[in-house]
Amino acid sequence: MNLSGLDIFKYLPASTKSEHSNCKECGYNSCMAFALNLSKDYNNISYCPYLNSELINIINNSKTYVQNEIEIGLSKKIKIGGENVMFRHNKTFVNPTAIFVTLNTDDENFNETLDRVLKFEILKLSKTYKVDGVLLKGSEINHDLRLKIENHGISTLTDKELKNLNLIKIEEGKNRFQNTMETLICTRKKAILENDKNYINPVYIYLGKTSNLIELSARAGFYICKYANLLIFEDFDEALMSTLITLRQNIYSDPQSPLQVEPNIYEFNEVDEKSVIFMTTNFSLTYYTIANELEELEIPSYLIVIPTGGMSVMAAWAAEKITAEVVSETIEKFGLRKKVKTREIIIPGLLEPIKDSLQKELPDFKIIVGAKEAYKTKDFIKTYKIENFAE
Q1: Element spanning 168, H or E
Q2: Which CATH number fits the domain that encloses residue 313?
Q3: What is the DSSP annotation of 215-263?
Q4: Distance CA 102, CA 233 (A)
Q5: Percentages helix, strand, coil for the chain, rounded to the nearest 5?
Q6: 335, 304, 272, 375 alpha-carbon torsion, rounded to 10°
Q7: How far apart (Å, rounded) are the C-alpha atoms in residues 159 and 161?
Q8: pTM
Q9: pLDDT in tens, the chain (391 residues)
Q10: CA-based angle 322:326:332, to the nearest 5?
């Protein structure tokens, strides 16, 4: 059962205007705000000391997985399974589909391929991703080899261990895509909708070698969406892995939470102490939009990313998530003053209403109102000149 904020609110004191209504002991300004937060993360149930016992029981039951959750790997553990919805918009998917690559120690190209696997990584939304694990085969598997791989943040698994796990294996047969697709959907329905104990273990698919990586990518992409918990590849191709990891990141992001980048001070085009300083929020779409513009400017610049809970510029201002105090704390935390002699900060044009409060909070900087739209940054910078430098 997936509870909405309104479902939860009716069990809280404010719904009946009883004692402790909107008491703020939970850390939120109102019972409604707490209810909305709790609908996104049931682990916050302990924040309110006045929860109705019926609601507690409902939430505890809702937290029970109908698909088993299993850990795989030696010391670097990967969790798979644990899903309790058919569609991510119902709540969210829990554990991303694990992507493993098969390596045979008896293969003459083993060391070369292993080196490629260990070096492979991609950066998405300020996070670095690698393949999740390696399925080791051959006669030269030993503890030192596994530790070497796992020290790179990649899990390891042997054929014997794979067979001993309580996993459902789906074979790609003659009509491999059609059959596999139907079996995956049927298995998830049996587990989630019918609570059939024969289908509650995680599912994996072994994808053999192929000369058509585009077709393999299409099939594997579908399996990530519907509903494989583990994919094991014989082929290792950097472009293939990048494509599937990017897709998986989109599918397994929480639809109820905005995508965010880490608050920080980011650098563009070989910065120095006289670099231009821009500012934005940590909503990923906002960040990457302005980041692309700054890269194309081909001038050294810093971008201060303010923690706003993943809100866009206008939403953050309206919700008072971006204030003079928050900006000042971010500048201090990441040591901007030590990085530059520049003493002008260009803020998004939509933040013009807080220019004066920013100026008061940051008297050693001059606050400049920039373009309202990111694509106009290039035109804005043509007329911009740095005027103030620290002595």
Answers
A1: strand 168-170
A2: 3.40.50.11600
A3: HHHHHHHHHHHTT-SEEEES---HHHHHHHHHHHHHHTS-TTS--B---
A4: 6
A5: 40, 20, 40
A6: 180
A7: 5
A8: 0.62
A9: 567 788 888 889 888 888 888 998 888 888 888 888 887 777 678 888 888 888 888 777 665 567 888 998 888 889 988 888 787 766 678 889 999 999 999 999 999 999 999 999 988 766 788 999 999 998 888 989 999 999 999 999 998 999 999 899 988 865 688 888 999 999 999 988 887 888 889 999 999 888 899 999 999 999 999 989 999 999 899 999 999 999 988 888 766 666 788 899 999 988 888 899 999 999 888 888 899 899 888 789 999 999 998 888 988 888 888 999 999 999 999 999 999 888 999 999 999 999 999 999 999 999 999 998 888 888 888 877 544 333 3
A10: 140
**Structural domain containing residue 112:** 69-251
SS3 338: helix
What is each CA distance from 294 to 5, 62, 142, 277, 287, in whole angstroms?
39, 45, 48, 10, 10
Q: Are residues 181 and 83 in the same domain?
A: yes
**333-337-338-339 Cα dihedral, nearest 10 degrees:** 100
Angle at 285 between CA 282 and CA 289, to 5 degrees: 100
Residues 96 and 191 in one domain: yes
Residue 320 is encoded by which pair of tokens?
């008072």
- Which residues does residue 86 pair with via DSSP β-bridges, in sequence order? none
Same domain, 365 and 305: yes
**Whether the Cβ atoms of residue 134 and residue 149 lie closer than 8 Å to each other:** yes
| Strand order through the sheet with 301-306 | 264-268, 301-306, 276-281, 344-347, 366-369
- The one-letter amino acid code at 124 reads K
Nearest CA among 199, 127, 211 for reference residue 167: 199
Identify whether residues 102 and 157 lie together within a single domain. Answer: yes
Length of the chain: 391
Q: Which two tokens stand for residue 81?
A: 């399974």
* 286 and 237 housed in the same domain: no
Q: List C-alpha distances in Å: 297 to 83, 261, 273, 376.
A: 45, 21, 17, 11
Residue 204 contacts residue 169 (beta carbons within 8 Å):
yes
Beta carbons of 390 and 341 less than 8 angstroms apart: yes
Residues 6+ positions from 19 with CB-CB distance below 8 Å? 13
- Structural domain contains residue 76: yes
